[in-house]
Write a structure and sequence with these properties.
By secondary structure, the protein is an alpha+beta fold. It is built from 3 helices and 9 strands.
């Protein structure tokens, strides 16, 4: 039985997830400032862990604090400096191992690739500064877009008004009125006017 590990909520098979950043180191032969890299090891667990850093080519690197303790919910930065001269296109490997505090059994491990590249690192492209979008109250209307921003044609309103007045006129040989005979419309004429008014109404509602 392993009561200590069970109380900490750890796995019995020792496969504890290891959280590090980054997982790849890039050293540039012509940039002295890039000869030093930092690997951050995180401990998101509720207990203290011990870490150890191993390397396939220990003579080529100087690791500051290659082993130590990480308290619960804390992190530690491990500085890895590449010794000169740098051999271009060489690839080495680091391994981050985690242990329970006071134990020599490996609980988890993760690999970090180290690569030496020729030249200098390329400068990142400048980022465009973020700007605040205009509020709806201050936004300039787009008169080129379809929708309510279009101005209604006055001719459409005039036709609608004429049709409305025509429907109010008396019907020929049906309604008695004192209006002149030429102001009396037949039933067929009123049907045509009503049809036109319906089309104009649809246009108005579309706006």
């Amino acid at each position: 039985m392993r009561p200590r590990q069970t109380s900490q909520g750890s796995d019995d098979d020792g496969n504890l997830p290891v959280f590090i950043s980054p997982t790849e180191l890039k050293y540039y032969a012509d940039d002295i400032s890039a000869h030093k890299q930092v690997v951050t090891i995180y401990n998101p667990y509720s207990y203290t862990l011990k870490y150890k850093v191993l390397c396939t080519a220990p003579r080529k690197y100087h690791v500051i604090e290659s082993e130590g303790l990480i308290k619960s919910h804390c992190r530690i930065d491990v500085v890895i400096r590449h010794k000169e001269p740098l051999e271009e296109s060489s690839i080495d490997k680091f391994q981050i191992q985690l242990f329970d505090h006071g134990s020599s059994a490996i609980r988890g491990h993760k690999q970090v690739i180290s690569q030496v590249l020729p030249g200098k690192p390329t400068a990142p492209l400048p980022e465009t500064p973020l700007q605040q979008l205009p509020s709806p109250e201050n936004r300039v209307p787009d008169h080129n877009s379809n929708g309510a921003q279009h101005r209604m044609d006055p001719l459409v309103l005039l036709v609608a008004a004429v049709c409305g007045v025509a429907l109010l006129l008396p019907t020929w040989q049906v309604d008695s009125s004192t209006l002149p005979p030429y102001l009396h419309l037949t039933i067929h004429q009123k049907l045509v006017v009503a049809y036109v008014l319906g089309l104009v109404t649809m246009v108005i509602l579309h706006f």
